[in-house]
Amino acid sequence: MIDLNADLGEGFGIWRLGDDDALLDIVTSANLACGFHAGDPVTIRRTCAAAVDRGVTIGAQVSYRDLAGFGRREMDVDPEELCAEILYQLAAVDGIARAMGGRVSYVKPHGALYNRICRDAEQAEALVTAVADYSPGMPVLTLPGSAVHAVAAAQGVATITEAFADRAYTPAGTLVSRREPGAVLHDPGVVAARAVRMAVEGTVTASDSSEVAVDARSICVHGDTPGAVGLARAVRESLIAAGVTLRPFS
Fold this sequence. Notes:
Number of helices: 8
Largest sheet: 7 strands, parallel
Structural class: alpha/beta
Radius of gyration: 17 Å
Strand order of the largest sheet: 4-3-2-1-9-6-5
CATH architecture: Alpha-Beta Barrel
Strand content: 15-25%
Helix content: 25-40%
CATH topology: TIM Barrel
Order of helices and strands: EHEHEHEHHEHEHEEEH
Number of strands: 9
Mean pLDDT: 95
Distance between the termini: 12 Å
Number of domains: 1
Low-confidence stretches: none
């Protein structure tokens, strides 16, 4: 079994990013922007309602407070402040999701925060504390080998490992920086084939052609990537053809 997730609800005001409705017909879990890197109350409400209508699991995609940089600029935030801001985002999206008949079932950090907490135990602690304060049974989605795993275990918070079908990997099993050429993959055939290997074999070919273990319960396809719907559909169809059952992890 594998979960297929995508980042959704990333419009803001009159601006729309990606085709949320089309992606919600493909994925099993939706990482909803919480208003700090993207998203606004109306977008969150509409996306939650659409996810509930389709039976798609809702996750809160918490972020640094960085609308201008789409949450992709690393920030040094005081741990107490970061914890409070994550708690704020989580509570807001869960409240709207519940009003729409659903709920937030997991947390996935976004962008620079996602990468930072994989190696920074202090910021990982801030994230995990916010989750534990709100709902300790709510798992955190992160990379294998992330610093979050040990921090979360100490607080009794579960973690779920994920892999990225449309991102390049370093030999260390981390994601290649978006500043580097080739960091984001766009060919549906290539992306789908990588997803199948991740799900079936638990490996991916890194940027130096080495093989990296990616023992993952969930696979992500980014909703803001050009051609995201086609990529996600190719991934879904290829996983099913390979005998993989698509099912949310929570």
